[in-house]
Amino acid sequence: MKDYIEQRCVEIAEYIITNKSTVRSCAKVFGVSKSTIHKDITERLVKVNPRLSKEVKHILEYNKSVRHIRGGLATQEKYKHNEEQEQAL
């Protein structure tokens, strides 16, 4: 594995741990795809730093367990925003 990929894996892991961020938000910050982030933290990070990998895995499992709630809140916010726009007209 190339050095810059290993470094990126560690930086991504530290960002996720520090900010409790999701894969999507992390991908936006680092300017790479969700697939790249996911591969970095699930496959490559284990080889680079197993301790960090375990910490990130716990955060990802939590994010996965609450994703249905986030989706519902996003939908609720969308319709609330649309309703406010209609009332402004």
Keywords:
single chain; mainly alpha; elongated
Element layout with pairings:
Elements (H helix, E strand, L loop, with lengths): L2 H17 L3 H8 L3 H15 L1 H16 L1 H22 L1
Helix pairs in contact: 1-3, 1-4, 2-3, 3-4
Structure description:
The chain is an all-alpha fold and 89 residues long. It has one domain. 88% of the residues lie in helices and 0% in strands. It has 5 helices and no strands. Helix 3 packs antiparallel against helix 4. It is elongated, with a radius of gyration of 17 Å. The chain starts with a helix and ends with a helix. The model has no long low-confidence stretch (mean pLDDT 91).
- First-residue to last-residue Cα separation: 57 Å
Q: How are helices and strands ordered from N to C? A: HHHHH
Total number of domains: 1
Strand portion, in percent? under 5%
Report the structural category. Answer: mainly alpha
- Major sheet, described briefly? none
Radius of gyration of CA atoms, rounded to a whole number = 17 Å
Poorly predicted segments = none
**Helix fraction bin:** over 70%
Shape: elongated
